[in-house]
């Protein structure tokens, strides 16, 4: 991979380490492009991540033909619980999840909205760590110059 070689060439560059949030394409692209302002989950955002930039780890899911990659940073100001299906449907323009989506549409689980306060898209994706958590990836290593 050409970009992996580039990472080897910048071995003397200062690196940053922080947690990354795994988000499948197309939701990842909608978030990083500023089109989606609420990420929906079945739990509230852990308080330790509120207000702190996370690397956005774009995962391929069933649609992508690529390996997981870091496409930028995302910061959340907090989260809230949708009280009912109608409230969730009314918020569609923010979360962009169809109510009929078989995986992420409204179901019997609670729905939380994570409010996006800031995103920063990298010029080029950076390979994600080989070991990824189910939801959060710990210690993503990114050259500092990618974060500017």
Walkthrough of the structure:
There is one protein chain. The protein is 16% helix and 39% strand. The protein is built from four helices and six strands. The longest helix has 8 residues, at 2-9. The protein has 148 residues and is α+β, with helices and mostly antiparallel strands. It has a six-stranded mixed β-sheet. It has a single domain, classed as Roll (Archaeosine Trna-guanine Transglycosylase, Chain: A, domain 4).
Question: Terminal Cα separation, in Å?
Answer: 23 Å
The side-by-side strand order for the widest beta sheet comes to 2-5-4-3-1-6
Q: Name the CATH superfamily classification.
A: Hypothetical protein
Q: SSE order in H/E notation? A: HEHEEEHHEE
According to DSSP, the number of beta strands is 6
CATH class: Mainly Beta
Given as residue ranges, the uncertain stretches (5+ residues, pLDDT < 50) are: 1-12
Beta-strand residue percentage: 35-45%
Considering DSSP H and I runs of 4 or more, what fraction of the residues is helical?
10-25%
The helix count comes to 4
Shape: globular
Would you give the CATH topology?
Archaeosine Trna-guanine Transglycosylase, Chain: A, domain 4
Main β-sheet: number of strands, strand sense, barrel status?
6 strands, mixed
How is this structure best summarized?
The protein is α+β, with helices and mostly antiparallel strands and 148 residues long. The chain contains four helices and six strands, in the order αβαβββααββ.
């Amino acid at each position: 991979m050409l970009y992996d070689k580039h990472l080897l060439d910048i071995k003397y560059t200062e690196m940053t380490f922080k947690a990354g949030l795994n988000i499948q394409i197309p939701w990842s692209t909608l978030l990083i492009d500023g089109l989606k302002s609420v990420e929906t989950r079945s739990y509230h955002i852990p308080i330790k991540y509120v207000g702190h930039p996370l690397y956005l780890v774009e995962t391929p899911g069933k649609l992508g033909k690529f390996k997981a990659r870091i496409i930028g940073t995302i910061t959340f100001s907090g989260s809230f619980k949708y009280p009912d299906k109608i409230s969730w449907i009314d918020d569609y323009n923010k979360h962009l999840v169809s109510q009929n989506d078989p995986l992420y549409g409204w179901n019997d689980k609670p729905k939380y909205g994570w409010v996006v306060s800031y995103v920063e898209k990298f010029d080029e994706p950076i390979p994600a760590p080989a070991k990824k958590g189910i939801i959060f990836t710990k210690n993503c290593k990114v050259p500092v110059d990618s974060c500017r």
